[in-house]
């Protein structure tokens, strides 16, 4: 018995990449509630789906999210390493504000179907 594929069953690679990008923005936002684990899950999704978005406007979002993840992880590590000196809380606050800014800016650009710039 063979199955016939209808037009509705065709997967649009751009739509799939857009869903992946939206999922990663959600993972990044959930980082605040789930102790950082979604941030790692999100960057794994980025590396899995980035090649499919190459050459499209979504490629900028994948790169934006990957850069956000690495800078946030560095900020968290630096904050933890300097917390006892009293500087760590300040670094943590700057890191969280920067992360919220990047998620918000990226999500708005994604919903407008626009690339995100540096």
Tell me what you see in this structure.
With 118 residues, the protein is an all-alpha fold. It has one domain (13-111). The chain has 4 helices and no strands. It has helices at 13-30, 37-49, 59-82, 88-111. Helix 1 runs parallel beside helix 3 (59-82) and helix 3 (59-82) runs antiparallel to helix 4. The chain is elongated. The N and C termini lie far apart (52 Å). The model has no long low-confidence stretch (mean pLDDT 89).
Q: Can you describe this structure in just a few lines?
A:
This protein is 67% helix and 0% strand. Helix 1 (13-30) packs parallel to helix 3, helix 1 packs antiparallel against helix 4 and helix 2 (37-49) runs antiparallel to helix 3.
Task: Please outline the helices and strands.
Elements lengths: L12 H18 L6 H13 L9 H24 L5 H24 L7
Distinctive features:
single chain; 118 residues; mainly alpha; elongated
